[in-house]
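Justification of resources, computational component.

The compute hours requested in this renewal are based largely on the per-chain cost of generating structure records like the one below. Each record pairs the submitted sequence with a full structure-token output. That output is archived, and it is also reused by downstream analysis tasks.
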Amino acid sequence: MKNKFLLLFAFFILAHSIFSDHGPLTTGAGATLIEPTTLKRFQLSAALAIAVSQYERLSDADIQELTLRMNQRGSHVDSIRQSLLSTVSAAIGVTDSLEAGMRYRYYRGEEVREGLIDSGGTYRSIRLGNIGGTADPDLYLKYRVLKTDRHTLTFAGFAKVPLGKYYTTHEAKPLSAYAPQLQPKLHLTGGGNAGDPLSEKYSIEPSLTPGSGAWDFSGAVAWSMWLGEGASLTASVLYTRRTAAQNYKVGDSVEGGFSLQRRWGSRDEANFSLFTELTARHLMPAVSFSEAIGNTGGTMFFLSPGVVFAWPAGLSVSCFVQLPVLRYVNEPQQYLAYRAGFSVAYMFGI
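The structure output for this chain reads:
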């Protein structure tokens, strides 16, 4: 039973990416399914997960071409080469059916650039360099409402707390360097306040920073069915409602899908499992100063194969790769090439 749980718990740990919106405003974040299994009463778990997202390579000329295609003042196209999101997680079984947990993150984006048509109609190329800092943590509750020999059904709720950094601290530039572009309709803003040492630094929109500066709330339902012979089917759907901060709002999202999993080896010995997920995510356009940003949001479908290794002592190691297979996005925007993730989880009782 313990190794079965470790397999399911590892899937849940990999799901950290669905509560973050970093990088260009593509729908490239994707989703990993939420597992309906909960910790037993007074069981504890801890995990470290790392996810690397690789985006399509765009030259300065490519960014300029995409930006000018919009042909509108205030239009902009964001570009990032690669991002890394590391997550430390902890959870406890409050009862056999109720689990509570939290996740703490660090985010880094590399080679962040932006093409912008300023208020005067002039194209500008902005190089922001690398962005890094503490991302917004989140809290969650999972409540299992059904458990039989074959079926498990769980509801979950999440709250992302705006405690992460919302400005860049790497290669930040004086605000005066962008003064000609700072119009109310545009997304460029000054960071901090008079008492903030970064008050004269340039701050970028929340979708590109480690923290968004806003509360997010999510609700989910997850279901699994035991198919026999070490095989199981899992499905989940999650809706995220995002709030606005600094006159900016990342779009709400709906995501979900299903997964097939197959385990080899007894639960009482070292074993491994393979899984394949097919997931979809729909992201609404972002909103800046009450105006929708036309080249944000859309729908994407992902195929995510992976493997989990588990040991009776309570340790599991997981890895996966997430590949976009279909996209219907609001152009023009940069595409996700792929995402790869790795996690180590440990469960123990008290």
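The first helix runs from residue 2 to 14. The first strand starts at residue 43 and ends at 55.
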